[in-house]
Amino acid sequence: MNTLTDLSKKLLPAQVNAGGAFSVAFTHTRIYGTSTQNYGTLQVHREAKQLRLHLRVDGELHTLTIPQAEATNPVARIEKWIDDCANGQLERAA
User: Fold this and answer.
1) CA 84, 55, 4, 27 torsion: positive or negative?
2) Chain-wide mean pLDDT for the chain?
3) In this structure, how many other beta carbons lie within 10 angstroms of the beta carbon of residue 31?
4) What is the pTM assigned to this prediction?
């Protein structure tokens, strides 16, 4: 299972507020307890009426658009979306 590293979780609020392109790191824990680290790219576009995000991880591109009216504190939603995308749980990532 892929999960955002603690550092990536700490940086996410500032990245969402600033906008731009960022590297995000994941820890992948295997069944037998070993873990590896892999990376993805998060692009944050702050627009007048919406917050648009693009996540590229494991060769796939995922997009999330949050209307400005719902974007007062979107970090928890974005973190869950990133984890769902990184784990191939796309039906939950919407």
Assistant:
1) positive
2) 88
3) 6
4) 0.85
